[in-house]
């Protein structure tokens, strides 16, 4: 039975934008009505385009952003009602790995300094000798071998892929139950991406660490979360969520269908036969002024009047949840014509 | 097949404090007229440097050490400034990486278009120029009335990129160079822009030269593909030959490493190792430290470019 590790319950995150000296501030719903569960040992992908709210949700799960309303539960407990000790444990158990590996490491510290420091100060190890031993083990786990070669280096002396592995090592040193990986491969060369994704899958299998993989890239989401779940965001709301295999095989929401049609496939013969979905408009509306009703309706080829008035709820459909009024009637979708 | 551009033995060096980087290494490349040729490579492979050299622009401190770039038989590298001014935009135009930032933030789109038209158009006439500009904006599916009076910050990234594509067409060039034209844009916008470019290519017969790191984009738009690695052009051929009969081990592995929405997930394999340090290039074939087929000769000699099929060349000892 799946055991929930992190849960978001009716989470809203509003930012407030100044509109003028004496005018009221405008609320911007970066994430609205989010319900999400990440189970122990699961790989969950969170996908969406820029402005979708994926990084906001990642930061809420990491405890870096307190939502405007709603509950964030870790192992069933609200993280904002925890005792200090409980909150500390949660913070250790949930680690964040960000996109820019260069910005995440102090440029004037050696790798040894950056990795030994956190586990010493958080008393995960007793002394420096034990810390060094642990760090070496972690470096081996992320396939940086021999570890001694990397300890003395500064971040600028490593490649992007190696720095991203260092960040993974720093995360696993805290013995986490969940690693939030926010676009971890988007700044890495194509030839090295699969290797980092494979490393994450291995850490998931061998150490039973759950991953929340945040990306705009559906192909890598499909690759890493093949046995896990996927959640698709559009302008701050979840439009579709379920098992990755189910959702990507027969996408139900018109936005996801459009997104999948737009992803190029590295095969010229398939590419020439791929299905197109005629959107009414290419340009995404601003998050500050989301459209009424269904947020996708101005671009959706299937939208009618109801869509512009009433906001759709996430409802079960064919083994997943989908927020679309016409999910039952829109034609079935496939990749090829 | 007639070639619009023929690059011969082109070598570009960047003398830097820590040593000299050879960004482009003795490259021979033909760009046939009326086709879409794509150049694939990872960051630092030299594809952008090569593309900029075609319009006579190599960023400081880059130096062209050897070679020729022949455009319709004339060497671009020997043109003087006056000739270059006629050649750029009118013969070959370029849409730069993050072209969104190529627009002047304090001028409206209308002013920027007119400025370019005034400087480059023969027999400049404002109303004729504006008519042409509106036509082009319509072509990239922008509302001319709205866009012309906007400042760049009032447009989205995708709209700015479409403005830049319209710009590149202003003087009816024979060829457009597109250097990563959709980086930093969302998937749906990227797809839309490539559909527009495909239509421009088909309807106007414009030659296109695209640089990208994304092999899937190449499958969508290109007719020919070249692969660059560490400054070398390692393989070039027709798109189907390259995807279904790739010869160079790097090309093969690059194709295997690209995640796709439609494939067997188990077939994806990473390429071992990392690209070489540009200050400290390996002896012999630049790919040999990562190559599963490397032989002793690969560590000693740089392989020659050889034909493996008609219009399909590869630089690898396996085929010598």
Automatic annotation (TrEMBL), chain A:
A GO biological process held by the record: peptide transport
Keyword list, A-Z: ATP-binding, Nucleotide-binding, Transport
Molecular-function GO term, any one: ATP hydrolysis activity
Keyword set includes Nucleotide-binding: yes
Origin superkingdom: Bacteria
InterPro entries in alphabetical order: AAA+_ATPase, ABC_transp_ATP-bind, ABC_transporter-like_ATP-bd, ABC_transporter-like_CS, Oligopep_ABC_C, P-loop_NTPase
Domain ABC transporter: 8-260
Coiled-coil features, chain-numbered ranges: none
Designated name of the protein: Peptide/nickel transport system ATP-binding protein
From TrEMBL, chain B:
Keyword ATP-binding: yes
Occurrences of domain ABC transporter (ranges): 5-255
Biological process terms in GO annotation: peptide transport
Gene3D superfamilies according to UniProt: P-loop containing nucleotide triphosphate hydrolases
Keywords: ATP-binding, Nucleotide-binding, Transport
Domain of life per record: Bacteria
Any one Gene Ontology molecular-function term assigned to this protein's record: ATP binding
UniProt cross-references to PANTHER family, sorted A to Z: MALTOSE ABC TRANSPORTER, ATP-BINDING PROTEIN, OLIGOPEPTIDE/DIPEPTIDE ABC TRANSPORTER, ATPASE SUBUNIT
Family: Belongs to the ABC transporter superfamily.
UniProt-recorded name of the protein: Peptide/nickel transport system ATP-binding protein
Taxonomic lineage of the native organism: Bacteria, Bacillati, Bacillota, Clostridia, Caldicoprobacterales
């Amino acid at each position: 039975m799946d055991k929930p590790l992190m849960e978001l319950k009716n989470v809203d995150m509003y930012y407030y934008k100044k509109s003028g000296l004496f005018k009221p501030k405008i609320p911007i719903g970066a994430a609205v009505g989010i319900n999400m569960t990440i189970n122990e040992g699961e790989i969950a992908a969170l996908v969406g385009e820029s402005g979708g709210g994926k990084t906001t949700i990642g930061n809420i799960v990491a405890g870096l952003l307190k939502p405007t309303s709603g509950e964030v539960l870790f192992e069933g407990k609200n993280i904002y009602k925890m005792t200090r000790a409980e909150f500390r444990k949660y913070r250790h158990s949930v680690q964040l790995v960000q996109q820019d590996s260069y910005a995440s490491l102090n440029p004037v510290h050696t790798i040894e300094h950056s990795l030994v420091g956190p586990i010493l100060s958080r008393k995960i190890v007793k002394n420096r000798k034990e810390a060094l031993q642990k760090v070496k083990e972690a470096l081996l786990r992320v396939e940086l071998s021999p570890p001694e070669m990397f300890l003395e280096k500064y971040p600028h002396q490593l490649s992007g892929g190696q720095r991203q592995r260092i960040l993974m090592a720093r995360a696993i040193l805290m013995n986490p139950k969940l690693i939030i990986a926010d676009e971890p491969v988007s700044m890495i060369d194509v030839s090295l991406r699969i290797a980092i994704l494979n490393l994450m899958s291995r850490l998931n299998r061998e150490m039973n660490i759950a991953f929340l993989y945040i990306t705009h890239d559906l192909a890598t989401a499909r690759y890493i979360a093949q046995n896990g779940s996927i959640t698709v965001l559009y302008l701050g709301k979840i439009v579709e969520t379920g098992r990755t295999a189910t959702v990507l095989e027969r996408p139900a929401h018109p936005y996801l269908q459009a997104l999948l049609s737009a992803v190029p496939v590295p095969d010229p013969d398939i590419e020439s036969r791929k299905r197109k979905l005629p959107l009414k408009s290419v340009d995404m509306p601003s998050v500050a002024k989301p459209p009424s009703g269904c947020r996708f309706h101005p671009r959706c080829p299937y939208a009618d009047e109801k869509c512009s008035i009433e906001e759709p709820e996430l409802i079960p459909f064919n083994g997943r949840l989908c927020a679309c009024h016409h999910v039952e009637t829109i034609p079935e979708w496939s990749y090829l014509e | 097949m007639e070639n619009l551009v023929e690059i011969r033995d082109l070598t570009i060096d960047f003398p830097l404090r820590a040593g000299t980087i050879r960004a482009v290494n003795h490259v021979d490349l033909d760009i046939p007229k009326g086709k879409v040729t794509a150049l694939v490579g990872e960051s630092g492979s030299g594809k952008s440097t090569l593309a900029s050299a075609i319009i006579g622009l190599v960023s400081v401190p880059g130096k062209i050490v050897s070679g020729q770039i022949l455009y319709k038989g004339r060497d671009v590298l020997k043109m003087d400034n006056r000739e270059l001014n006629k050649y750029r935009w009118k013969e070959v135009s370029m849409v730069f990486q993050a072209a969104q930032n190529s627009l002047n933030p304090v001028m409206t789109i209308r002013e920027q278009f007119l400025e370019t038209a005034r400087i480059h158009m023969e027999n400049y006439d404002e109303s004729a120029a504006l008519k042409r500009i509106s036509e082009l904006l319509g072509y990239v599916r922008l509302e001319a009335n709205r866009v012309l009076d906007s400042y760049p910050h009032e447009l989205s990234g995708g709209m700015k990129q479409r403005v830049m594509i319209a710009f590149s067409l202003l003087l009816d060039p024979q060829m457009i160079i597109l250097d990563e034209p959709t980086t930093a844009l969302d998937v749906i916008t990227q797809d839309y822009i490539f559909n527009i470019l495909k239509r421009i290519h088909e309807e106007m017969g414009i030659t296109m030269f695209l640089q990208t790191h994304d092999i899937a984009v190449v499958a969508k738009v290109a007719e020919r593909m070249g692969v660059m690695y560490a400054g070398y052009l390692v393989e070039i051929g027709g798109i189907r030959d390259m995807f279904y009969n790739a010869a160079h081990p790097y090309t093969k592995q690059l194709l295997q490493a690209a995640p796709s929405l439609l494939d067997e997930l188990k077939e994806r394999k990473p390429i071992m190792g990392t690209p070489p340090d540009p200050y400290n290039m390996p002896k012999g074939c630049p790919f040999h430290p990562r190559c599963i087929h490397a032989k002793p000769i690969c560590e000693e000699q740089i392989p020659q470019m050889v034909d493996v099929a008609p219009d399909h060349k590869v630089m690898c000892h396996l085929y010598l």
